Amino acid sequence: MASTHYPELKALLREAALMNSVSSLLDWDQETYMPHAAAPMRSDQKSLVATLAHERRTSPRLGELLAHCESDKSLTKADSESAANLREIRRDYDLATKLPKELVAEMAKVGSQAQEAWKVARAASDFKAFLPWLTKMFDLSRKKAECYGAPAGGELYDALLNEYEPGITAKEIDAIFTPLRKDLTDLVARVAASKTKVSTKCLELRIDPTQQHAFGQAVLAAMGFDLNAGRLDTTAHPFCSGLAAGDTRLTTRYRDEKFTDALYGTMHEGGHGLYEQGLPKMDGEKDAGLFGQPLADAVSLGIHESQSRMWENFVGRSKPFWKWALPKAQKTLSPKLKKFEVKDLFAAVNTVKPSLIRVEADEGTYNMHVMIRFELERAMLQGDLAPKDLPEAWNARYKDYLGIDVPDDRRGCLQDVHWSFGLVGYFPTYTLGNLYAAQLWEKINADLPDLSKDMGKGKFIDLREWLGTNIHRHGRRYRASELCQRATGKPLSPTHLLQHLETKAAVVYGL
Predict the structure, then answer these.
(1) Which of 88, 165, 269, 276 is catalytic?
(2) Rounded to the nearest 5°, which phi and psi values hold at 214?
(3) pTM confidence score
(4) Looking at CB atoms within 10 Å, which of 61, 273, 397, 470 has the fewest?
């Protein structure tokens, strides 16, 4: 007779996932349509839902069922899906049970309050107004890290990093970032010394956000994002939320000038959205499939970011993409774009120039923004940098790394929403995503020799299916490093990203 332990375990996990999806829906609403006056009640709602979800994730019954399943040889056969599922369920359970429910509730409540404070402070460029909330969130994040415990030979930051990129450490990140920074600094310097000057006039047209939104939705549809199972809205800071099976929400932001900022923000979140829609959460329109199980979750944020950065940069900033997209942009956005050619758009969106805003940075300098945040949040968590000194430290690094002066906190240390709700350890995954994306892209082009030709016609189905087969459908069956090895035949290496950036700079700047 088949054991009932595994079905019951999966049923409990689904309950916990449903509660988490309610929490995510509250987050999405707070970032999009919630009136400001609702903030106090929202923080109470978030705290209650976080507590209920945590209780389900840490219930003694779940622990009992997990132990029974782990002793069932039919479920733990090497390389089986059930064995991978149980491995990841154990990881999640062990981590969750280290956190007191009071801490989970407080982080949810304070995080909700801090988000609203961040919105107001950012708009007014008033760091002092946000400082008490930043201090609270880092104090709570430190308590959370202490509950998890630093790994042997590691540091507290590793405990939080492990939430987003399982198994990697701050020292390993350092070992990647230090030589990468040197190589990128050299590339930026050679670009600056180039006699080739790239015109960006094609990006300076003022275009109504409504038209930009329509264009973005058309691009999403071409990418294969199912707008019947998702939507695109506006917010202060773009994000993607895979709420549940059949419900993936994207957001972006618009301004009249430089329409490509919103376009690439939309494509970036669309890449995340394709990953979420490609995970085996749903089996048919009525069956929730593996929703709630690790096999239906993304393996890591580094891999998640590889999907978004690939669509944003490797697809969206390519000549084939603009061969297809420019005629549509001329029709949808502005007839003034008709005086520009594909080569003009390609060069303009691939300029390398230090700038203030991370989400609007070019490929060549983007990782510098990430490195700065990694160093600062690591120092604040360790207590080596007081939150009150963040603006000074931020501005000093921007001057050192990118050679630019930060004019105000709105465009400085208040530009990102992450720290307001405790996403400490998240930022390094952006650069890991770039590294994964470059390595995957090289393999994809080897496997799909007609990809460039197809992209020039707006045909992205083969690319989407390759990603679905090699990345999306696996969920968390393999850890990120193993998934990379399986998909590309090689361990992760920064050489692929550097080669990609060097090749593009050579074309644009004649290096």
Answers:
(1) 269
(2) -65, -40
(3) 0.94
(4) 61
